[in-house]
Amino acid sequence: MLKYLLNVISPAVCPSCEKSRTVYPLPVCGGCYYSIQARTDDADMLREKDPEKIDPDNSTSPLKSEYSCLDYTRAVRCCVKSFKFYGNRDLIPLFRKTIGSYIIRSGLKKQGFDIILPVPLHRSRERKRGYNQSAMLGEIVSAFLSIPAYSEILIKDKNTSPQSALRKSERRVNLKGSFTVVNSSLIEKKNILIVDDVTTTGATVDECAYTLMKAGASSVSALTLARVR
Ligand SMILES: [Zn+2]
Hints:
Order of helices and strands: HHEEHHEHHEHEEHE
CATH class: Alpha Beta
Radius of gyration: 18 Å
Mean pLDDT: 87
Number of domains: 1
Bound molecules: zinc ion
Number of strands: 7
């Protein structure tokens, strides 16, 4: 309530465009908010495993396909951070609209996925934050694709340093062996879609895919809300 009143009396400058004022409870101005929605209509964000386009640092990625709804623009970054670190649930309708529109346009429904697994947080980090933002996105994806999402199958049992603090080459090493499949029989011969909020080098989704393929998955693809280009 106090936050609301302060914002009505003196709204903050939008951290994305630095021109307009933010519209409470959003972390950005109306213009930046709607620009995110508009973006989902024109971008084709499917990254197939085209050998010509494979990143040499990433040539061994076990992912079948990698889908991303948005480019990680300044406005998207402000919204993702507000959702991820401050638990701003008022952004869920925006993400729902963005993900829903992407799923319809990309033909993701026809890919034959069996289950959705959100990228897990280590339990100490999840306890501290109170929620796992990827699990919340996984629920949205699950509703649009009409397939179940499970948060208890793939877990993170090694508490690693935050990826954002590391260089590209260090990210893969940092994550090596940090995920575990709790019950392999639930993922054996399954086509799995993993869901995460943001992908930068792809190290996190790749490591999840390695772990799942080793445990007997038939294929693993990834859907992220935003991708850093
Ligand atoms: Zn703005």
